[in-house]
Amino acid sequence: MRRERISCARPYQGVIGTPAAKGDDRRSERFRLTKNPFISVVDDDDSVREALGALLRALEFEVGLFASALDFLRSDRVRKTDCLILDVRMPGMSGLELQRRLVETYRDVPVIFITAHGDEERRARALKGGAVDYLLKPFSEESLMNAVRTALSEK
Question: Mean pLDDT throughout 86-100?
Fold first, then answer.
């Protein structure tokens, strides 16, 4: 049986199964199992949410977009999320409250906060609560991707 090398070029990519030897009646098939990290974006601003979703999909991440913290909590994606990009100020439940609830109720998920408000007290609370980064809008694509890489490496 020939072994195939697992590629580490893309996150979480691997190969299961191998081609059948010539003449093998089992007719095994080669299956590719690719699990790209799932990133959830929670932001009440439609344009920000959609732009981040488009960027992350272009970089081959799986993406879930949510308009509120409650939408995210009610979804089936809470436990599947590998990284959470989260607005700080939103109607209803704030991003900081969602972070606290996730830690208490579910699990630690790497959180990257994004905000248009440079409030040092909130920033300190977010980082003390375990946030990977706290980015001020507008932020560069490079800043976001560095934060995502850090978040996924901590997982």
Answer: 96
